[in-house]
Amino acid sequence: MTSCPKQIVHLMHEYLDGEIEEATKKELKLHLDTCADCKKHYAELKKTIALVQSASHIEAPAGFTAKVMALLPREGKKIGIER
Amino acid sequence: MDLIVQRRIRQVLKGDQNAFGEIVELYKDKVYQICFRMLWDRHEAEDAAQETFLKAFLNIHTYNVDKKFSTWLYRIATNLCIDKIRKKKPDYHLDAEIAGTDGLNMYSHLSSGDQLPEEEVESLEVQETIHQAILLLPEKYRSVIVLKYIEELPLQEIANILDLPLGTVKTRVHRGREALRKHLRHL
């Protein structure tokens, strides 16, 4: 892949961010169709994203809101520091 | 959701604390998740998430109602976490592997007697590898990756949250993705 222009990897990222222009998108697609290394690089990026997105979503611990409410200054006190 | 939040904020400003409880309920999971992915420690994440809401409550009068509330709130959370990372472990990402294995991991919240089916163990191992890869990212890349791929926020909103130019956010997402690719491509 060292022989490929750095620009190609940049285009992959633009594409992944949904920010690529039509003309450059064609350029990227054409390159990926002909260059196995870049195609692999792109596939790895796609896989990486899918893996990161699969990181299981977690929830706040039980009783979280009650704990926060207990931390608040008592009602009646003024809110804010400078007022 | 925004309309409800704006109404609750007005109630909080008038001194109604219960209304703040509803705001906490709405955002607690998102805020806790940002903190957990940034700090990778359940106790630290809970502390940071609580602190985020306390700070939001104390500074609610500085929130500009014309802007998105979540942006303001997530900014407090990410700044708090970045501060914690910098203060506690200046070279956090360098010893991440030690911190990760020594801290709480996906296994530790399963009760000890549980027998796991093989594919679940495997998927936990994959999860562990993903978390390690995220944790190995320097904090400036970690925050954009967490906001983009775990919280699924648009790049412009991430720029607003982190108070960075859009171009900088894009560069960090690109570099963060490349760094993650190096760790995850063999999975």
TrEMBL record, chain B:
Signal peptide interval: none
Gene Ontology MF term list: DNA binding; sigma factor activity
GO biological process, one term: DNA-templated transcription initiation
Keywords: Sigma factor, Transcription, Transcription regulation
Entry-linked Pfam families: Sigma70_r2, Sigma70_r4_2
Domain RNA polymerase sigma factor 70 region 4 type: 128-180
Record-linked InterPro entries: RNA_pol_sigma-70-like, RNA_pol_sigma-70_dom, RNA_pol_sigma-W_bacilli, RNA_pol_sigma70_r2, RNA_pol_sigma70_r4_t2, RNA_pol_sigma_r2, RNA_pol_sigma_r3/r4-like, WH-like_DNA-bd_sf
Coiled-coil regions listed: none
Domain annotation RNA polymerase sigma-70 region: ranges: 24-89
PANTHER family named among the record's database cross-references: RNA POLYMERASE ECF-TYPE SIGMA FACTO, RNA POLYMERASE SIGMA FACTOR SIGV
Sequence similarity: Belongs to the sigma-70 factor family. ECF subfamily.
Name listed for the protein in its UniProt record: RNA polymerase sigma factor SigW
Source organism (scientific name): Domibacillus antri
